[in-house]
Design a protein that fits this description.
Length: 192
């Protein structure tokens, strides 16, 4: 009589291969998960920028997203030009440029993503050097990204930091009004 089956040594060998495969793939899965959280959060902020750009175009008035603080809580509000001179902090304080949305908590929506810059992250090319971790919102001195009805925008970048050293950026190009999501993982920035 012929018996079919596997020996204990063969089963142990197969289990060792499976354990080795799992040990190798878990760090890659964690990195992929971190990157997916960053991309998701950056996409949420990109949509807010696109909405403000759309309001500017359809209303014929400059529209801006202003990054504000309520104590220790970061907030955003959307303002529209009321004085035909662009959205200005002084006009917001005087009530000339009115708030049309917000304030809303500035949250990424992902538990492992925060508005921050990891240390020792290089600037997004073509800029050189390292990013300053103390300022993750970089839209001029007023921390405001403004969109004009004819297609211009305040150039700048909004940074998101995730787990495992993954860095994200939502970048607005001034003249072209282009909004890009960039991810830094490993050793280079790439567009999503």
């Amino acid at each position: 009589m012929k018996e079919n089956g596997h020996t204990l040594v063969e089963l142990v060998f197969v289990l060792l291969i499976l354990v080795l495969f799992i040990c190798i793939s878990v760090p890659n899965l964690k990195a992929y998960s971190s990157e997916a959280h960053i991309v998701g959060a950056a996409s949420v902020f990109k949509q807010e920028f696109l909405k403000a750009r759309s309001i500017a175009t359809t209303s014929g008035r400059q529209t801006a997203i202003r990054f504000e603080q309520d104590g220790d809580v970061p907030m955003i509000s959307v303002y529209q030009d009321g004085g035909c001179n662009g959205v200005l902090s002084a006009d917001i304080n005087k009530g000339v440029d009115r708030r049309i949305s917000g304030p809303h908590r500035l949250e990424s929506g992902a538990p492992t993503v925060r508005i921050a810059i990891h240390p020792l992250i290089p600037n997004v090319p073509p800029e050189r050097g390292l990013l300053d971790p103390s300022d993750p919102i970089r839209f001029g001195n007023s921390n405001m990204v403004s969109f004009s009805p004819i297609g211009g925008a305040t150039p700048g970048t909004f940074y998101l930091a995730g787990a495992n050293g993954v860095q994200g950026a939502v970048r607005v190009t001034g003249n072209t009004n282009r909004i890009r999501v960039m991810i830094y993982r490993g050793s280079k920035w790439r567009e999503q």
